[in-house]
């Protein structure tokens, strides 16, 4: 079996004769270019006019899989579910409908057939449906099966599109609601579980840091948009780094983004191990005189459970798990409210106004909450109306901040100084909602996939076999287990990720790229603001990283 990404980029088309073979690819490219803004793009397709279906200097360099793999993580359309009313479950279907290996599955099928197989969670309006059907009708003629046995011809190298499947997608681009839900789905992750602990560390006034980070995150998100609009062909964060600092910038930013995702996978294992060992503290295993406690046992068990999901070539079957973004975040806040009100735990704890020694850790925890900028360029590139991006960004950051604040305030008021690094550890063990809150945060396979796909690109073509891919992905999963068992400190690891990687991705790099690309056009106000944000980001990164590493070392010492 071929690699997910290492497939030889040779596009085989079906036609009736040689002349048709020569004309059909060009017709497809022209048609895709003409309708890029509204006809054939879906959430997650390349931007029109920016090289969506034509090779350019950005998409031809490593990591070529970034756009596709990050769409898997953020895009929200489900292949079959339409009852939740949000696009959260669709992040997989859309991306893989547009991917090269899914194109193999749908090759030879008309857009009507593909349309019946993949349905968005948010139903389009009547006018949108009419427009979509009209677009499908217009495009269907060029995808109909040939009337006789076709001949096969390879499209010349200079006429190949970069990614298979975009032209065949009959869906419109993301609406305002879909774009906002994509952003919320990215931001509302496991970071919400540590917001009460962040108040415990920094005090009530530490919430000001959360609000300031939210405002700065919105501004730097808008800067990313300005960078994307500055040159043709820019679609992703690595593309921006390439435009700003050349190939070195592209590779450096890509590595930072992938290491951040890798660290998040470690967090997932620590999270599940901590919570499951609390729910079942007496579980242990004896092997040859060696006793494995519940914490280690559940870390290994979680790894064994998630490992097969990382082997899948078609991740659309994981679309059910992909609901764990917005749904899980709302669910855990509801759990807190339920316990405080219905179970009469109460909101009696007052806490401290300010705890200066704990501020550095609080900075890292709050910074982790806004580590979604690696996905925002993808969301912007997939919008139907890109002028709405600042408003969409404000909506998703604002909504996420409200959820973070609600969870932080309720959790700390309920548990006070007894607040754990994840407030799920404070939830009563006998409540079903406790188990649901743990289960709903599992998105491991979706998070490790971008890193795995980027590494698969680096394999020699002769080694891009499915068996080798299984070995590579299994090794990645096992490595996260080893680190999770070696550094089982959830809050400190999260603070380290937030202090080091989130500060770089969310605050420092957007400003640096903006100044590098648009310095000649930037106003003095923009230059001053970017310089200020860079200074704040560097300071927070240094202070937070030092405190997190010191805390980890101290935990080892004790």
UniProtKB/TrEMBL annotation:
Residues 1-62 are annotated as: Disordered. Keywords: Amino-acid transport, Membrane, Transmembrane, Transmembrane helix, Transport. GO terms for cellular component: vacuolar membrane. GO terms for molecular function: L-amino acid transmembrane transporter activity. The chain crosses the membrane at residues 204-224, 251-271, 283-306, 318-341, 361-380, 392-412, 432-453, 474-494, 500-518, 530-549. It is found in: Membrane. Residues 1-11 have a biased composition (Basic and acidic residues). Residues 174-548 form the Amino acid transporter transmembrane domain. Residues 14-24 have a biased composition (Acidic residues). Its main location: membrane. InterPro entries: AA_transpt_TM. Coiled coil: none annotated. It comes from the Eukaryota. Belongs to the amino acid/polyamine transporter 2 family. Amino acid/auxin permease (AAAP) (TC 2.A.18.5) subfamily. This is Amino acid transporter transmembrane domain-containing protein. It comes from Triticum turgidum subsp. durum (Durum wheat).
